[in-house]
Amino acid sequence: MAAETVLHPGLGDRLAEVRGGIADACRAAGRSEDEITLIVVTKFHPASLVRELAELGVRDVGENRHQEAQEKAAELASLGLNWHYIGQLQTKKARQAARYAHAIHSIDRDRLVDALADVERPIDAFVQVNMTDDPGRGGVAPDGIVELAERVAAAPSLHLRGVMAVAPLEEDPARAFERLAGYSELVRSVDPAAAAISAGMTHDYAEAIAAGATHLRIGSAITGNRPDHR
What is the per-residue pLDDT across 71-95, written as a single tens digit (0 to 9) for each? Predict the structure, then answer.
């Protein structure tokens, strides 16, 4: 019998290594691994890689391009995965994304909330915070967090989960995530149950865990280098 072809060599080893790193970071922070949701970011990778991840026990997958996410979610619908939309979402694409997304981590403006307010499926919503001084970056400015969170909380189809951010490259991630924990408190002033923090990527997930992150968005450390994208 011919040996089974391995489509994505090393994927299982890389996943195991990251899971081990998460376990180590949780122990160092005095936290339980059960508090952490690992979202594997699979942008630019084929559906076959996502299928293999599912076989390895991954349930949560992240995408940041609507067209690609939509196609993969349709092709892999039978796997019962949770699809997390983590990129900037155009208002005109919001209702389409709501058809497959379990969660949207990039809620950053009123118009996006309004577009999602009455979709058919409930959506977990994270308020994305801009951690930089550049207004062109994704995310709401810190002084707008409470108002946006209140708008999300009032939207019938949205379930306010907490905050999301990307640590600025020029800032120590531990310090950035400490600031994000403070912004999380602002959201919890709107809804005490909205305590989730979506933070931490391949290079800084340990610091994110130490600061209270509950959802990690990790890509290349697990998936390997991105193929040439379309």
Answer: 999 999 999 999 999 999 999 999 9
pTM comes to 0.94
End-to-end, the C-alpha distance of the chain in Å comes to 36
63/41 Cα distance (integer angstroms): 6
Rg (CA), the chain: 17
Neighbours of 104 (CB within 10 A): 25
Q: Where are the domains of the chain?
A: 12-24+33-223
Q: Does domain 12-24+33-223 have CATH number 3.90.1150.10?
A: no
- pLDDT tens per residue, range 39-49: 999 999 999 99
For 10, 54, 188, 230, the CA distances from 164, given in Å and listed in that order, are 30, 24, 13, 27
Q: What are the strands, taking DSSP E only, across 129-176?
A: 158-164
Please check whether residue 60 is in contact with residue 81, taking contact to mean a CB–CB distance below 8 angstroms: yes
Read off the amino acid at residue 73: A
Work out the widest C-alpha separation in the chain, in whole angstroms: 64
Q: Alpha-carbon distance 42 to 220, whole Å?
A: 8
